[in-house]
Amino acid sequence: MSIERPVRPALHHDGIDATVESDDYLAKRTLRSGSAGWVLLAGLGVSYVISGDYAGWNSGLAQGGWGGLAIAGVIIAGMYLAMVFGMAEMSSALPAAGGGYTFARRALGPWGGYATGTAILIEYAIAPAAIATFIGSYVQSLNLFGITDGWWVYLVVYAVFIGIHLTGAGEALKAMFVITVIALIGLAVFVVAAIGEFDVKNLTDIAVTDAAGASAWLPHGYLGIWAAVPFAIWFFLAIEGVPLAAEEARDPQKNVPRGIVVAMAILIVTGAAVLLLAPGAVGSQAMADSGNPLVEALGDTAAAKVVNYIGLAGLIASFFSIMYAYSRQTFALSRAGYLPKSLSVTNSRKAPVLALIVPGVIGFALSLTGEGATLLNMAVFGAAVSYVLMMVSHIVLRRREPDMPRPYRTPGGVVTTSFALVIAAAAVVATFLVDRLAAGLTLAAFAAFLAYFGLYSRHHLVANSPDEEFAALADAERGLT
Q1: Can you name the residues that pair with 21 across neighbouring β-strands?
Q2: 3-class secondary-structure state, position 6
Q3: CA 414, CA 364: separation in Å to the nearest integer?
Q4: What sign has the CA pseudo-torsion 178, 181, 183, 189?
Q5: Helices assigned H by DSSP within 142-250
């Protein structure tokens, strides 16, 4: 019987303690490689985000009006596109399950890597809880199965989809792809039906306030653009999770960059269509407070009924896929010792069991609050913080390691990612404009994670985990030069 035990001690140059674990330790913490090509990875990227086309974005109309949300949407789309290009480059150079954490660990050291991974994990653990509340509302509004209490729905979706993920990545990614295609069909039905109802006057029916710069297009003035930013993020939130599938992808150096770029292109088209046609069909004022905007935009029509039922598939797609993301981020941080090491043990199907279950239990508990909007804003805050750190990582790696092999290179280089960095920093501040409670709670959770690292886990890292080895190799190369 093999026993997990350290082979020899090691010490990072910055004084953070690490050990070299046995081969048995890593053997129990491996994922199934070759499970996905670029098509499934692109589907994963769309799946992460597609629920944001069905609901959530429209609350930005109340903050900035249609013009404010549209301007915020263009800026945020540019930020995400620039960020995706940067992440495509880093994922081709450093293909590991840690995603953004792996990139930041190489560029910013253990503290920077852990901070980035934690921000991403907060985003991915909280976002499914928010989506679960939306799924519960959908099920109740559709009067499915006679359910009148949402917590039963939250429990079922968490239990069922954790169960599917435990069967293995290949099976889960294929199931996600099918659900995502159904959700895209729902958006296509909406677009065809809404075009006939479109009237440009409907876009500007929100009453103009006395705010600076206020007009029919910007009823809440210039500040409304900034306040609408967190809701514009909902059109693209979580696409950055595609690199988390690197260790399970075929030829990740090529397929991960291709998958994330194709997904971003699809999401720009779907987001633009929804933002234009839903308010244009029934009015921005009606959309601002809607819990089911695409359905309400179509009124009492057959198309509305089709979109209503398919909208549930969109929410499930994002819930299902973000569950995959939180498990891989937890797995990577745990395998390297940043989080409790038991969280990264995989089953016979090479699925990380506790990395799926533990964040799922936490998410289920959060969903019981029923505060979907607050949970959504908490996820956005965590995401924005991680974007800042990941873009800094790209810039640092370009400057410090210009000769690192990069099968894919970001168009525009650091100029592109510097633009994303500036907008992401503004988005962090914007979350406080919209929901100080959500931002404050997320900041408190972030601080608690950092305290755990400072007091405990920085003394228990695993030197031979893939992410730590990437960083150690870079340190050794710099030492030689």
Answers
A1: 6
A2: strand
A3: 40
A4: negative
A5: 150-165, 169-195, 221-233
Cα dihedral: 322, 323, 328, 333 (round 10): 100
How many Cβ atoms are within 10 Å of 110's Cβ, its own excluded?
23
Please list, residue by residue across 350-382, b when 16 or more beta carbons sit within 10 angstroms of its beta carbon and e when fewer do.
bbbbbbbbbbbeebbebbeebbbbbbbbbbbbb
Q: Which helix (H) or strand (E) holds 441?
A: helix 436-455
> Which of 190, 117, 124, 130 lies closest to 367 in space, CA to CA?
130
Give pLDDT, residue 283. 96
Task: Give the list of residues 6+ apart from residue 104 with CB closer than 8 angstroms, or none.
Answer: 112, 113, 115, 116, 117, 389, 390, 392, 393
Residue written as token pair 């996600």? 176
What DSSP character marks residue 216?
S
CA dihedral 403, 406, 409, 412 (to 10 degrees): -20
Query: How many CA atoms lie less than 13 Å away from 73 in the CB half-sphere?
Result: 27
- Round the CA-based radius of gyration of the chain to a whole number and report it: 22
What is the pLDDT at residue 1? 42
Q: What is the pLDDT of residue 6?
A: 47
Q: Quick check: helix, strand or coil at residue 430?
A: helix
The predicted pLDDT at position 3 comes to 44
Q: Which residues contact 331 (CB under 8 A, 6 or more apart)?
A: 29, 31, 97, 343, 344, 346, 352, 355
Specify the pTM.
Answer: 0.89
Q: Give the closest residue to 312 by CA, choosing from 299, 294, 288, 300.
A: 294
Rounded-to-integer distance, Cα 83 and Cα 105, Å: 18
- CA–CA separation, 89 vs 83, rounded Å? 10
CA distance 280 to 65: 12
**Given the structure tokens 């303690």, which residue do they identify?**
17
Q: Return the pLDDT at 478.
A: 61
The stretches in the chain having pLDDT less than 70 are: 1-15, 144-150, 472-481
Greatest Cα pair distance in the chain = 75
Q: Please list the alpha-helical segments (H only) found in 240-371.
A: 252-282, 284-288, 293-298, 302-335, 353-367
Place of tokens 């934690």: 118
Q: Who contacts 129 (Cβ-Cβ below 8 Å, separation ≥6)?
A: 363, 364, 366, 367, 375
**Angle CA(276)–CA(281)–CA(283) in degrees, nearest 5?**
90
Please answer whether residues 383 and 123 qualify as being in contact, where contact means their C-beta atoms are separated by less than 8 angstroms.
Answer: yes
- The position carrying tokens 């995989």 is 346
